[in-house]
Queue: 2 jobs
Job 1
Amino acid sequence: MAEAKELITIAGIQVAPSILNADFADLRSAVEKVATADWLHLDIMDGHFVPNLSFGPAVAKALRGHSRLPFEAHLMVTNPEFYIELFREAGTARVLVHPESTVHLHRLVQMIKASGQEAGVALNPATPLNTIDLVLPELSIVLLMTVNPGFGGQKLIPGVLAKIRDLRQKIATAGLECRIGVDGGINRETAPEVIAAGADFLVVGTYLFENREDPAQVIADLKQLVTGK
Ligand code: DX5
Ligand code: ZN
C-alpha cells in the first residue's frame, strides 16, 4: 500500500481560503489577495446548525465577478436542500453538506449533482466515517472538520488525524478519486501533520487572513509541503 504522501503527490495539494475571518468590510480585496489558491471556501452558517450566522448566496454572487477561482459553499445550515439552487445561481461550482443536517443524505447528494455542481460531504469531528459509505462513490471530496464547526480561529482537534488516515485507506481500497479536505485550525504547524495523514485539500481561514502581508506566499508555502518543489 503506497504511503499516503505518495498518493497525494500525484494529485497535488489544493488550498481553499475560507473568508469567514477575512475583513467583511472589504471582502473584494480579500478574495483578490488569494487569487493563486485553488478554490474559494464559503462558510454558510444559519445560526441553527451552528451557533453563528455568516452570509448567504448574495455575498457569493457579489464576489463571483471578482475571482476566477471556483467557489464551494460549505453549508452549515438546517434544511440544506433549500440552498442548492440558490448557490448555483450565485455561481458556486460545489456544495458541501453535513449528514448531520439532513434526513436524506443520498437524495441531497443527488440533488447537488443534478444541479450541475460537484457534491462534497463534511463530517463533524465526532461523526463516524461509515456515515458516508453509501455516498462516497458520488463525492468529489470528503471534508473532515478538524474543529467543531461555527467559528474560525480554533485549534485543530488532534484526534481527527486518525480519521484522515482511515479515510485515505478507505478511498484507496475502493479505488476512488475522492479528495480528502480538512477544515479548521490549518496553519504552518498543522498542515504537514494532516498531509502526512493523507489530506490533500486544505481549507485555511485565519492563518491566511490574520494580518497576513502576502497570503499568496502562504498559499505557495502550503502547496510545497508535500511536493517539496
Ligand atoms: C468553521 C469553518 C472553517 C473556518 C476555517 O466552521 O468551516 O472553514 O472558517 O477555519 P480556520 O480559521 O481555523 O482556518
Ligand atoms: Zn468551512
Job 2
Amino acid sequence: MSTAKIILGEKEYELPVVVGTENEVGIHTTKFRGQSGAITLDPGFGSTGSCESGITFINGEEGILRYRGYAIDELAEKASFPEVCYLLIYGELPNKAQLEKFSDDLTRHSLIHEDMKKFYEGFPANAHPMAILSSMVCSLSTYYPETGEPGEDDLNIIRLLAKAKTIAAFAYKKSIGQPFIYPKNDLSYSANFLNMMFAVPAEPYTVDPIFESTLNKLLILHADHEQNCSTSAVRLVGSSHANIFASMTSGICALWGPLHGGANQAVIEMLTMIHNDGGDYKKYVKKAQDKSDDFKLMGFGHRVYKNFDPRARILKAAAGEILEKMGVNDPLLDVARQLEEVALNDDYFVQRKLYPNVDFYSGIIYRAMGIPTEMFTVMFALGRLPGWISHWREMRNDPSMRIGRPRQIYTGPQGRTFVPVESR
Ligand code: CMC
C-alpha cells in the first residue's frame, strides 16, 4: 500500500501513503490542495497527523505507551527523571558519564536570576501558580535572548528544565507568604523541588524518600504523550521560530485547561464535591450521562486511549501503595475507586470506551504528599517539559518542517458592499 486515491467530482487524485515503524498508516495530503483546490477538514484533528515523530509511540486501542521504544512501566519503575529527560530529548539513554554531566548541569542551573524574584512581588497572593509559571518561563527569554551561538539550544534546554522547578516552588511559597528556599546542589531533581516547596528556614527538613521516589515516578509518567493539545501548541508556536522559552510558555498555557492537564485539579474538586454531597457517586455517574447537564466525569475519557490509559493503571496501584505506606486514609481515594468501578460497568462508559486517564489518580497522590490542589497542573507541567522540549527540538532540526498554518472552510457572508453608518 504505497498510495491512496481520493475521487473528487470527476477527478481522481493519487496521494502518497506513509507507514511508521509501528505500522501506523497516514495519507500524505500536503500536495492535495495544490492539485485539487480542496482541503481536508478535520476539526479537533481526530484523523490528522501534523508531523512524523520518533519520540513517543501510543497504541490507544491496546493501551501501549513507549518513549523512544521503552515501555512506560519499565521507565517508571527503573529510571530517574533526568535520565528520561535525556532519553526523550536526545533519543538514547545516557551512559553513566552523560547522565552524571546532565544531572550535574540540571543542578547547577537551578537558580533563577535574583532580579526575577521581584516579579513575584507583583503577583497577587492568590494568583494561580500556572499563571505565574507561564509568565516566569516566558520572562526567561528576557535574561537569555537568542544569539544563535553554537550550543545555545542545549544550554537553554538545561536552563528550562533546571529553573522551572525553582520557579514552581517559589510560586507556592509566594502563595503561602513564606520565604523562598533556594535550590541545594546535593539533592536529586525531585528532592530539590520538594525541599524548595516544604523546607522553612526556621527548622531542619529532610525530604521523605517515599515522596522523592513517588515524585520521580509521577514526573516520568507525565514526561511525553506525543501530539496532545499542549505539545501541538508548542510545535505550532515553535514553527514560527519563536524562541524556546516563548514556545514552552504556549505549552504551559494549553496544559492549564481542565480538558487537558487542568483535569487533575478538576478531579480532586469533583471528588471533594461528591464526598461533601454524601458520597453518592452513582448519582454523579448518571449526571455525567445527561446531555442537558454540563457535568463530566473529570479524569475519564481520552482522545487516543480506547482502553485503559497505562499511566492510570500505574498510578492507581501507586496511590493505594503510597497512602498505605504513609498511613494516610483519604476518603477521596474510596470515592475514586467506587466511581471508577461503577463507571467501568456502566453501558454509557463501556460503549464509548471511557476509562480513567492519567489525571484520575495523580491528584490523590499529590494530596497525600501535601501538594495543594492549585499546584497539581504545575506538577504536570514540570513533568511534561522534557516532552515539549523534545518535540520543539525535533521540529526545529527537521529541514522539511514548515510554519504551521492550517486552512479553513469559510462559512461567513459572501462579498458585500460597505454601507456608510448614516444609511444603516
Ligand atoms: N464524562 C462523560 N462523558 C464523556 C466524558 C466524560 N469524562 N468524556 C467523553 N464523554 C463522552 C462525550 O460526551 C461523547 O459522547 P457522545 O458520543 O454521546 O457525544 C463521547 O464520550 C466521546 O467524547 P468526545 O468528547 O468526543 O471525546 P474527545 O476525544 O473529543 O475528548 C476528552 C477527550 C479527554 C477531552 C474528554 O474525554 C473529556 O472531556 N474528559 C474529561 C476531562 C479529562 O479528564 N481530561 C484529561 C485528559 S487525559 C490527560 C491530558 O490530556 O492532559
